[in-house]
Specification:
The complex is a heterotrimer. By secondary structure, chain A is of the alpha+beta class. Chain A folds into three domains: 3-47, no CATH class; 56-159, Uridine Diphospho-n-acetylenolpyruvylglucosamine Reductase, domain 3, CATH 3.30.465.10; 164-265, CO dehydrogenase flavoprotein, C-terminal domain (Enolase-like, domain 1, 2-Layer Sandwich). In chain A, 35% of the residues lie in helices and 23% in strands. Chain A is built from eleven helices and twelve strands. In chain A, strands 4-5-8-6-7 form a five-stranded antiparallel sheet. In chain A, α9 runs antiparallel to α10 and α10 (220-233) packs antiparallel against α11 (244-265). The radius of gyration of chain A is 19 Å and the shape is globular. A five-stranded mixed sheet of chain B has the order 2-1-5-3-4, covered by helices on one side. In chain B, a hairpin with a 2-residue loop joins β1 (2-7) and β2. Chain B is globular and about 50 Å long. Chain B starts with a strand and ends with a helix. Chain C folds into three domains: 15-129 and 204-280, Aldehyde oxidase/xanthine dehydrogenase, a/b hammerhead (Aldehyde Oxidoreductase, domain 3); 295-459 and 612-755, Aldehyde oxidase/xanthine dehydrogenase, molybdopterin binding domain (Aldehyde Oxidoreductase, domain 4, 2-Layer Sandwich), CATH 3.30.365.10; 461-607, Aldehyde Oxidoreductase, domain 4. The longest helix of chain C is centred in the last third of the chain and has 27 residues, at 532-558. Classes of the chains: A alpha+beta, B alpha+beta, C alpha+beta. Chains B and C meet through α2, α3 and α5 of B and α1 and α17 of C. Chain C: One of its GO terms (molecular function) is iron ion binding. Chain C: This is Xanthine dehydrogenase, molybdenum binding subunit apoprotein. Chain C: It holds the Pfam family MoCoBD_2. Chain C: Keywords: Molybdenum, Oxidoreductase. Chain C: InterPro entries: Ald_Oxase/Xan_DH_a/b, Ald_Oxase/Xan_DH_a/b_sf, Ald_Oxase/xanthine_DH-like, AldOxase/xan_DH_MoCoBD1, AldOxase/xan_DH_MoCoBD2, AldOxase/xan_DH_Mopterin-bd_sf.
Amino acid sequence: MFTIDHLVQPQTIEEAYQILHEHASNTVLGGSAYLRLGSKKIRTAIDLANLQLDSIKEQDNQFVIGAMVTFRDLETHPALKTYFNGMLPQSVRNIIGVQFRNVVTVGATVYSKYGFSDLLTALLALDTEVELHQGGRMPLANFLAKPYPKDILTRIFIQKNNRQAVYQDLRNSKSDYPILNTAVSCLENQWRIVVGARPLKAAIAVAASQELSGKATLSPADIKNAAQKAAEELSFGTNLRGTAEYRQAMCSVLVNRAITEVEACK
Amino acid sequence: MQIETILNNQRVTLEIVPDEMLADTLRRYGLLSVRQGCDTSCCGLCTVWIDGKPTLSCSTLAYRVSGKRVTTIEGVQGEAEEFAQMLVAEGAEQCGFCSPGFILTVLAMKHELKNPTEEQIIHYLTGNLCRCTGYMGQLRAIKKYLGVE
Amino acid sequence: MRVVGKGIAKIDGLSIATGKPAYTEDLAAANALVIKILRSPHAFAKIKTIDTAEAKKLAGVVCILTHKDVPKVRFTLAGQSYPEPSPYDRLILDELVRYVGDEVAIIAAVNEKIALQARDLIKVEYEVLEPVLDFETATEHPSMVHPEDDLFCNFDTGLIKEKNIASSQKVEYGNVEEAFEQCAVVVEETYYTQAQAHAMMETYRAYSYLDPAGRLVVVSSTQIPFHVRRQLARALQIPASRIRVIKPRIGGGFGGKQTTVAEIFPALVTLKTGKPAKIIYDRRETFTCSSCRHAMRIKVRLGADADGTIRAIDIDALSDTGAYGEHASTVVSLVGEKTLPLYNKTKALRFVAHAVYTNKMNAGALRGFGATQGTFAVESTVNKLAEALKMDPSEIRLQNLIKAGETCLPYEGKLLGSSSLHRCIQRGKELIGWQEKYPGKDLGNKVRAVGMAVTMQGSGIAGIDTASAEIRLQDDGNYTLLIGSTDLGTGSDTILAQMAAEVLETPLENIAVYAADTDVSPYDPGSYASSTTYVTGMAVVKAAEDLRQQILQRGAKFLESIPEEVEFDGKIITTLDGTKNIGLEKLAYLSVLGAGKCQLVGHGTHGSNVSPPPFIAGFAEVEVDKETGQVNLVDYVAMVDCGTVVNPNLARIQVEGGVVQGIGLALYEDVRYDQKGNLLTNSFMQYKIPCRKDIGNITVGFEESFEPTGPFGAKSIGEVVINTPAPAIAHAVYNAVGVRITKLPITPEKVYMGMYK
């Protein structure tokens, strides 16, 4: 059973950051959907509700998504439904249900680096940056690559650069967590293949991506080859939803389908 | 601690503790339609509206509805009954335990989506689990309610 | 008929749908003590010491009970009529804990938080023992799950505790080996059916208090109030006359609430403290510490003549009953009992079964109750046999299945009273498009294919379960129907009222239904074994006919006539010559007015010597992704013979709900443990029941038959509905990609591995 001794809604991000560091158990609240799953003893829980971090702003060159934006906001945002072939809404739409997606937030998901995340896989295939209050702005891939000191994720930025992108996943029951997911994108013949829920967190299949990049058109053999490479270069694990062996096999299937679909969009 | 909220259209002050979830607060204040079916945010039974949006009350800290409008099925009895009549005519309430959260989601969908397709209806309601009915009767009732072919 | 056969809305429907307080927790007193249970972290261990001193010091803790504080009399929690055929292998709290989650201590405090804090302060020292986790090797395991000397069973069910066998049985009709030798084709397969969770939306819960006379009142979400009372009396060692059990509305049961799960804990606390107490299981406890479907290994051998006539069936079943033996012998016996009678051209049959103890959560009753497991194994083998014979799987069934008026080896000489199963198969084939679609069609990356299975269940437990009903004519001419059956949401209260209304020729609104309360209701074993419509229904019909007879008698008396010369149309009693009449209302108030009068009460008690089977023919159409192995259920057709359909709407929902639960068993649901016996699937996150997007289209149809022993010709419907999806979907998957799944559930990975590895 989790406990919270105090709850605060700071008026500035700096104040929130100060409180966060007052005690080791002080915690920033996300959507709090997973709070009850753990047994955290929180001295002060910090709610970012007053910091205007709950909107999606479309600017000329980027989308700015506040940490407190919910999955449902992503799912229903008119511009995101069309941009990147609607990949972002697509990636979150099968997660549990509307009432759940009205609770969970982008910030908590990205900050927690959940392995099963659908959103992280999709974001990683785009040109996404993460803004930490103290740590500053950095590419999502860098953020995912190593641990950072306790900080507050404030916003994420996605470049509006007409990347063609496709999200694919494999689930057993359709509202289950994914057995595996993938997002593939292409910008000016530069490809990026991301695979998540392996069940390790989303990662870029670098070699496979490079294999495709630079080519004006792709043959089925190119695609098959890259999909195979992705399955070879990434690592896979076993959990209740599937074995490493199956995940690896599915990786080439999903990646193949995703590349084919992106190629068709170009 | 105390929070001010508009609960079922009435401005109220609720006495809460920091780690109390809204579902527990609501039951404590006698809104017994609010049920919990899981501890992992995935059954939809505890659905209430926060500022009109269907939300899991089991996963929302009560503190966070401060200044917001909270609606349970007790607050929309007339509208709920109109749909419930159709649900019951299909026999699709069965044990009834998940019905309040389900009905609130149906009404929220009606407010949010214009002329939803069958696919959109199913998608909107995926977060409401039901073990009794097999969902088909619920779908028939919704289609009648919304006039969907 | 006026009321029977109509799709009438449930009498409590609107109220429960709109969230009125009607369930156990809604009714618990606000000041009730909150109970939490300290549970074993080990699959098998002996408690060496328990130190509750620190926990007891915590302000707000009212009592903490351990194995030292409970009676030492063993009992079973199986919801069965006394004497139960389940072993008496439990204590309220035992020194030996037999699975992860087994009860160690009961904590009662003024609120949940304090109860949980106190739980964390209890110190327990365990001697950890080697657990028995694999049911296939349980009989040879050096550990004995139940070494106690006072382990006891009312019947010889073949319990051998030294070998961890809770039950063993064998039946044989004819000479099986000889019959197989004469067969032109013999097929054989071994199947594994997994444990399944009930996953009813309302978790287990109960609360208790002492009434002004000092009697213990237990309010519980239970299917079996009378069995609960009897079990409480034995477990707590107090007379049953001091106990009252009340069942409010139930948020689903599916057989889970046919086992007493939570009631004993508040009852014990209330007895010890004199205070009201409640226990609400959370979802994790519900998954971890209640019961589940028995996982089984079933070997089936089928032999047939060259023309497809099935001549011999041999079934060997091994069932995992877990740490306690609730329903161990009866569930596994239904593997044979509900499959062997189907194919009645047989010369010989054999059924051998064992149920074994393991150190996992006990299994128990779950919709389908062994028939589900047996149907998957036998029907899958029938499909395999059809292939071996190059026959259409529907044709082999039409050729071999029992028909009304026929007998079969297990019921030698007894004739089947009703069946429309052959019509169900014909109609189901039309609805699924069998002729065009069987076996399947390649669509490139995907394949579409169809599959089928048939099944039977029973209606009540023949020769054992007996229900009673009472109908009172109230002072102003309306009726109160008193029953002890337990509407789980199925609508049985409504269905029983429909039957009473039919006999009494009165509108449904004129009948108030009250159920179930052991102080008030006439005895009923409870709602399980598909018994309520058939057994309790017949009791209601008898009670209504009894009351009707009394109305005629009393009316005739008032009219100075004789019963044979008056008639009753539901409102007015009139002499046959039409000269005199008296209204029911007047008769009613005159019956309770003045000296020497007597309120009219109709009584009915019914038990049946037969358990007439309802039947279903199930058809699945799937689309299988050849690259991923993913199975998408496109369409499911269930054609049902439940005799007369008493309420088409409620029957249809029962079928749809049962089919979807069967789809869950087929495709998603799987109770899984780790190497140490910890349950991994302890939430709806990890244990997936079908969601709205998983089920495709479901078509339900009824082919009515008339069951001569049932009320208005009705049989049962509650359980039979869950049995066909698993074998029908497995068959469709085989027809799609040639992978024969013998181990449920059918996950994409298993299908993929079957195709490529």
